[in-house]
Write a structure and sequence with these properties.
With 204 residues, the chain is mainly alpha-helical. The chain is built from seven helices and two strands; from the N terminus they run αββαααααα. It is globular. The model has no long low-confidence stretch (mean pLDDT 92).
């Protein structure tokens, strides 16, 4: 499934590369190392997401060969497909902006990130103690019971955060607000999971 998504991402980039009119491309607005803000467009950036998708897929393929990953096989595979799917949506958004400067990039990205959090959160509680994938804190690695409870808690928190973010992706119009929502809905469940693992260990 991940390989198919990478192929689709590449096909979108190829179509955009050939279809963009002269002088068009993905907008760039970055502060350079020289302290000067550089603004313009880049046709080459349509290939960024396919490249990142390929690297992510190959990295997960290598990780799948490590001993112990079978204990978290389903969440691991779900995370791979969800991340590569998110990168495809990001590619769609970048290409959309390249063709239409008024295209709203953040709304589809926020909705896709919410879907990712819900998908991963739904399976995270099934991950058993291993050294490759999961919320690896000193407390979860030291106690299998703390690991299981922490991942069930974090999975539910991620699912809730993803649901909120998915809704906000359809409701909010402001790109800055959506950026903050993406960061908060992604980070809060993970931070809460770390804190919960410490709390569980202190009670053991």
């Amino acid at each position: 499934a991940a390989a198919v998504l990478v192929a689709v991402n590449t096909a979108v980039a190829f179509a955009a590369w050939n279809g963009l009119p002269d002088g068009a491309g993905v907008p760039i607005n970055v502060l350079g190392l020289d302290g000067v803000r550089h603004v313009g467009v880049s046709r080459d950036l349509v290939w960024l997401m396919p490249l990142v998708s390929l690297i992510v897929t190959l990295s997960f393929a290598v990780g799948a060969r490590f001993n112990g990953i079978a204990a978290a096989a389903k969440p691991y595979e779900t995370t791979l497909v969800a991340v590569v799917g998110l990168l495809l949506v990001v590619e769609y958004a970048l290409v959309g902006r390249a063709f239409d400067p008024a295209f709203d990039v953040m709304r589809p990205v926020a909705a896709a990130t919410g879907a990712l959090l819900m998908a991963v959160g739904n399976h995270l509680g099934k991950a058993r103690q291993n050294a490759v994938f999961g919320l690896k804190t000193p407390w979860t690695l030291a106690d299998a019971g703390v690991w299981d409870k922490t991942h069930r808690f974090t999975g539910r928190a991620m699912f809730a955060g993803g649901f909120v973010l998915l809704a906000l992706g359809f409701l909010l119009r402001d790109g800055n607000a959506l950026g903050v929502a993406i960061a908060a809905c992604t980070a809060v469940p993970l931070v809460a999971g770390i804190a919960w693992s410490r709390h569980l260990a202190s009670e053991a």
